[in-house]
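ok trying this again, last paste got cut off
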Amino acid sequence: MTHAVDPLLTTLLHTTPLFSAHVALGARIVPFAGYEMPVQYAEGILAEHHWTRAHAGLFDVSHMGQAVLAGADHAACARALEALLPADIVNLAPGRQRYSQLLDPSGGILDDLMVTRPRDPAENGRLLLVVNAACKAADFAHIAGHLPAGVTLTPLLDRALIALQGPQAAAALARHCPDATGLAFMEAGPAVFDGLPIHLSRSGYTGEDGFEISLAASDAPQLWAALLAEPEVKPIGLGARDSLRLEAGLCLYGHDIDTTTSPVEAGLAWSIQARRRTAGGFPGAARILKELADGPARMRVGLRLDGRAPAREGAEIVHGGRTVGAVTSGGFAPSLNAPIAMGYVPPALAAPGTRLDLMVRGKALAATVTALPFVPARTARKPAKEA
């Protein structure tokens, strides 16, 4: 497969430090979030999806936004961030990572993000942030514009981010980074990969066990090549990344969540810890705390279609001849060999087993509300050495 790029696009789009590696592997390159990114490699999306579920897939996610938030101490830094999101960051333990959402004044979601508190006591007062690629400029401006004196945000423009996902990810990574197997899910810390300094977290967005590796951009090609040399590992593009996260029932910003949705509507109430539910103090707290107490007006649900035809984003969800919602993500689930979707419906229609219709090109496709995730998560809750 050859790589061809419109000369005009090359002046408008960014590339990651691994762009040349993707081209050399014959990747199909597409514009995504302002970058030229691989959507698939030679074997195709279906094969890449199945490989990740069975072995280990390697993803270039260097387009994501990485930054450091820094203050006088952890409490000062954490409270500054808590003013912008509903998670408990003050009580986040060293070496732990937490998922949350940046909120607007109405409780709508500006973006979702990962927050890590460094393990090293020398880094007390620092938090590591990872935000979505398409939102990173707006996110960083929003955060920086709402920080108190003494707390600063520094984007990490010289870092790459690589994800290794799948049931054999730990074994492949451990040959180069023995400390990897000592991490539990949502733990993070500094490590060394074949002599290269990295920051490693046991996390990802596929529902599988796996890791995200942040490192100097100049070191990324060496690490990428070393992992691809392992027999369990193959490169995976954006296409399979999307089908994997959909099967895992995970939200995609700009589709399943945005400024029109609250964390409670989106089924993300689990990411709001008890202290924040009691104290509030975050944007849109009045709405969100009311939704936690009384229930939201709509809820995100999983949908499994009866036939083989998929329903895509925007398809109307119908019950009793009346439109009750819309599909926010949809496609074919390779692991289930069936089409699936997610969307929002009133609470009365959100119970698993509820029958609904999805309108596709004027035709009603029968679907059943299904508990999320569609495919059970296999993340490593305990370090491998303790399992």
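PB: full thing came through this time. The longest strand covers residues 322-333.
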